[in-house]
Here is the input.
Amino acid sequence: MSETPRPGRLSTPATAPYWQAAARGRLLLQQCLHCGHTQLYPRTLCVRCWSEDLGWQESAGEGAVKTFTVIEVPGHPAWRAEVPYAIALVELDEGPCLLAGILGPDPYDVAVGLRVRFVADSGGDPAGPIPFFVRDGS
Ligand SMILES: [Zn+2]
Here is the structure.
């Protein structure tokens, strides 16, 4: 684990329920109570109809890698000890996409279309769990 503190999470009134659920191992999606649109990341209004009447639904946490990269030179020194690692845009089966790390022994095994499932893992961060994905079946 790195000795450099990691950048903090950005928790706002709109995102706090998301981060609190992630810390308990749950993945929440924001759902518009007016038009039914499901979105992620959390916002103060629906991006489809602009309603501020928003609620939460729990994601099944399953999806597929839409695109990815393997980080060999981290953008922050706190992750220097973690390289190489995979970061992917995962399209959840419910529709929204989430950018998150893919845990596993070989980051070069990640591929477009790879089925993954959500896990909450600290990834070595003393601040606690955040969303990650692992290969389906692992
Ligand atoms: Zn809406």
Notes: The domain at 60-138 is CATH 2.40.50.840 (OB fold (Dihydrolipoamide Acetyltransferase, E2P)). The mean pLDDT is 91.
